[in-house]
């Protein structure tokens, strides 16, 4: 599941949310006269309501024969869904991200191929390569709903102070590295400001592997130990060892801190992460920032974030459920999502529209065209195409951490990732 969004929603666990107990029969919300009620489950809390409620209301107004029972799960989303599926009490529609492959591999979602064909949905123009993430064994199981690929946040004041030109759409890895060095500030022998965020989280270095022509997984085989990937990990390790990337000690020096928090305080010049920080960051009067596409080695690519909507095979209301997810992912509904900017639409047409790119966020002007540009640059690594995503990324992250802490060389880290990754893949 998307780490950044989980981190955000975990803060909302104490919010008042709706959660139907697992013992509740799906048919408790069955047809009432000519009205069909479908259950729709997502993770999140009160802060995520603007992502869904306005669109659900618009859908129900346009489809008076369908009512949506909207349920939010603030924690243990996967576990609760698995329990419901095991008890044959699955919701009709569920939100999925990287966890979708695991559910799909167990045959829990319907194949959307016929629905997509009958509805003449243009998958390529709507979502580009993002649809690959929600396809298992050649069958699409979800329609992309929330988007926002990995982007670069940068502190304009710190760039100005260091005399660095702002990142462009064509920013190279050499320019990024030079900026990270110039943005790093040392006072009395102590680093008080780092140039970049970095760390072992897989998107922080996996995106550069894809940019350098490498992969983590291809055709259900781990291929991480390659010359292309060694070049990237060597560069990434050097950036950390040279002191230009926030260290583990730096983040641990402040309770409950992290890259997002340190960037918001002006102690990191550049942050690589997803769209979800836009709303919070624009509410900080002292933070003068903007966004840009990810820098690149050889190819202009980025790492995917987001989620999709899938239909349970257990659902007895699949036609109504598809009408709902078709609407939620349509241009009309995605424009509504774009108005709140609590999260990013997934629809490329909406992201590239003047209506989206020209709006202010909490009274601030940002380069929102970057989101559309970056969405078109998404290239899905094979690690997203199977149920092994969570295990592999956890293992790879651990080995990269060992490397950054100086316990492994980049060569040794890649060898260990290859070996342990192959063992993990044997289970699938």
From TrEMBL:
Q: Which InterPro entries match?
A: Bact_solute-bd_prot1, SBP
CDD domains in the cross-refs = PBP2_TMBP_like
Domain of life, per lineage: Bacteria
Q: Which UniProt keywords apply?
A: Cell membrane, Lipoprotein, Membrane, Palmitate, Signal
| Keyword check for Zinc | no
Stretch forming the signal peptide: 1-20
Matching entries from Gene3D superfamilies are given as: Periplasmic binding protein-like II
Q: Under which name does UniProt file this protein?
A: Sugar ABC transporter substrate-binding protein
State the organism of origin.
Answer: Enterococcus innesii
Name of the encoding gene: ugpB_5
């Amino acid at each position: 599941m998307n780490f950044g969004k989980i981190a955000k929603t975990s803060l909302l666990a104490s919010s008042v949310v709706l959660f139907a107990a697992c013992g509740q029969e799906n048919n408790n919300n069955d047809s009432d006269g000519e009205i069909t009620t479908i259950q729709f489950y997502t993770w999140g809390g009160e802060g995520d309501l603007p992502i869904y409620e306005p669109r659900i209301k618009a859908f129900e107004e346009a489809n008076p024969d369908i009512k949506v029972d909207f349920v939010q799960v603030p924690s243990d989303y996967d576990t609760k869904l698995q329990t419901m599926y095991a008890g044959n009490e699955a919701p009709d529609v569920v939100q999925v991200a990287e966890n979708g492959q695991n559910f799909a591999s167990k045959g829990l979602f319907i194949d959307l191929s016929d629905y997509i064909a009958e509805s003449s949905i243009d998958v390529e123009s709507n979502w580009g390569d993002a649809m690959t993430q929600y396809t298992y064994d050649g069958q699409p199981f979800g329609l992309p709903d929330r988007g926002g690929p990995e982007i670069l946040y940068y502190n304009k004041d710190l760039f100005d102070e260091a005399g660095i030109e702002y990142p462009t759409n064509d920013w190279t890895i050499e320019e990024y590295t030079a900026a990270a060095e110039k943005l790093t500030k040392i006072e009395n022998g102590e680093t008080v400001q780092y140039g970049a965020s970095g760390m072992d989280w897989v998107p922080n270095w996996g995106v550069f592997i894809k940019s350098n022509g490498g992969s983590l997984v291809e055709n259900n085989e781990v291929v991480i130990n390659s010359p292309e990937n060694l070049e990237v990990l060597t560069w990434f390790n050097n950036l950390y060892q040279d002191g230009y990337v926030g260290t583990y000690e730096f983040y641990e020096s402040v309770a409950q801190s992290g890259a997002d928090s340190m960037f918001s305080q002006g102690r990191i010049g550049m942050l690589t992460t997803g769209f979800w920080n836009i709303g919070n960051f624009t509410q900080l009067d002292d933070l003068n920032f903007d966004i840009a596409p990810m820098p690149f080695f050889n190819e202009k690519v980025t790492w995917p974030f987001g989620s999709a909507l899938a239909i349970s095979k257990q659902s007895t209301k699949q036609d109504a459920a598809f009408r709902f997810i078709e609407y939620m992912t349509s241009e009309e509904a995605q424009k509504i999502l774009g108005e709140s900017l609590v999260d990013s639409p997934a629809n490329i047409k909406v992201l590239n529209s003047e209506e989206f790119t020209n709006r202010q966020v909490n009274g601030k002007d940002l380069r929102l065209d970057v989101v559309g540009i970056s969405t078109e640059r998404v290239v899905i690594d094979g690690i997203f195409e199977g149920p092994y995503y969570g295990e592999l990324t956890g293992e790879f992250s651990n080995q990269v951490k060992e490397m950054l802490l100086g316990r492994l060389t980049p060569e040794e880290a890649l060898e260990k990732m290859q070996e342990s990754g192959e063992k993990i893949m044997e289970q699938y």
